[in-house]
Amino acid sequence: MTTRTPTPLHTSAPLPFAAATNGWRIAFGDPDHQDITVTPIVGWISLPAGAPSSLSDSPVEPVILWDNVKDPLIGPALEYLQSNPGIYVHQVLAPGFDVREAPAGWKIMEYGDQ
In 3D, which of 85, 105, 100, 104 has the Cα closest to residue 38? Predict the structure, then answer.
């Protein structure tokens, strides 16, 4: 196994960004609350080699939208995971696809429906 030193997401130069087409979503699993929260992906940032990602060794990182009234948040999925220990990426959903293989008894929620 090769050990790599993580490269931070925040650099002095902006990372390349591509807007996501309508319908891309990411599902976060929360074992403590036994639920899966699905939130929109608004875009993707290209990561430098060796940078950490919420999607294993992916060269792109989803940028997500928490559309809170009066306090919307937009940022990399990795920052959400780092701020919420125990939560994990259950699935990335292409347009038209639904969450699958949810653990028995878990609630699946679209963000905002809580």
Answer: 100
Return the amino acid letter for 85: P
Q: Could you tell me whether strands 60-66 and 35-46 are parallel, antiparallel, or unpaired per DSSP bridges?
A: antiparallel
pLDDT in tens, the chain (114 residues): 333 344 445 544 567 888 898 999 999 999 999 999 999 999 999 888 888 888 888 889 999 988 788 888 888 999 999 999 999 999 999 999 999 999 999 999 998 765
Q: Residue 113: what residue type?
A: D
108 within 8 A of 99, measured Cβ to Cβ: yes
Q: What is the C-alpha separation between 47 and 34, in angstroms, rounded? A: 31
Strand partners of residue 56: none
